[in-house]
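Sequence and structure are kept together here, with a separate record for every protein. A complete record is shown below as an example:
=====
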Amino acid sequence: MSHAAVEFQGVWKKFSRGEKHDSLRDLIPALANSILRKPKQIEDLRREEFWALHDVSFQLSPGDALAIIGPNGSGKSTALKLLSGILRPDRGGVRVRGRLGTLIELGAGFHPDLTGRENIYLNGTILGMRREEIDRKFDAIVDFSELHDFLDTPVKRYSSGMFARLGFSVAAHVDPEVLVVDEVLSVGDYHFQQRCYDRMREFIRNGTSVIFVSHSMPAVTGLCKQALLLRRGEPLFLGDTTTAIQMYHSLHQEESKDSDIEILDAAVTDATGAAREVFEPGEQLNIDISFKALKPVPKSHAALLIRTVDGQFVLDTATSKLIENSSIELSPGDVAHVRFTVDMNLRNGVFELGFTLTSEIEIIDKFIYYNGALKRVVMVGDRKANGFVHMNPSAAMSIVRK
């Protein structure tokens, strides 16, 4: 008899492109059509259908933490919705033993016209808490969210970060035996994100199983020892997180062969504008990328990635975080230029600079690691300490002897 907290066995899930049921009037005919259609084999797809998940399996014991990673559109959120019971698989089985806490979509379980206070009770009830339990934990939920001043404000006036605070705070106090968390934590401020990660580590130490979806590789490596890599719904790797991340980066390089853009130039310079490949800790580095649209590029954002040669992320930033109203929208033949500037406070070693372009519109997002923009830089200088960063350390000491 299996004692796994989570079992995900041979799961297949398909969707129809453009399928949308906003009302009961839309849903009933769709259900009737599906019943009257001639049964088909599970491997068969109609023209409008596609596999969101294709024979995916994994299991977690109590206290295990699994990251699910992969490009946008790879089926990560679909897997979480199956685990949460929002969706059912077309084939295979999903089993969760114990109380489930979920945070997979901002505002899920919230009513926009109700206040934060009222939504704590509503969301807590949806997650399986009794009124007496919510009463007992109410102050702790509010304290964790730090939303005391907005408790009686309708949540439709909350920012996305406030939504995440309230949602995670309720889910964290369900005392879950299985916790499912999507990328939604990325909208919160840094201080709150770290508190959430600390709380999840506490859960893991106490025997809670955690399934975590994120594009942040530092968050993944800091929380999970195991990772599942998906691409277009298919499992590519299930195992140690470091190997999964390395394969994830290789995947971006493979997908860059079918590009929407052409890299015209990629240059690395110092603060004076001189081309450099070798830097000392603390020096300014500029990377300039020029690219031409080969196809229409919808609203997108350029990103800079810095990683070690063995695949560990050091920095991941984007124009959307650094420049207001920075969407890039191009027609075929248009040329764009992007410059990123960073202070290289890194230890001795070799580091890779990469460039990505991410669409904010398309359902299956473009998140492509462009080989033409890949650059390597060498950090040199004194070795006063080890680690990723150079912080110019100093020390003082004294000894008082008897």
User: Anything to note?
Assistant: Confidence is low (pLDDT under 50) at residues 20-24, 38-42, 362-369.
